[in-house]
Amino acid sequence: MATPLTAAGAYAQVARLGNAPAGLNKAFGGAAEGPSFSAAMREALASVRQAGVKSDTQTQAMVAGTKSNIVDVVTAVAETETAINTLVSVRDKVVAAYEQIMQMPI
Question: What does pTM read for this prediction?
Answer without folding.
Answer: 0.58
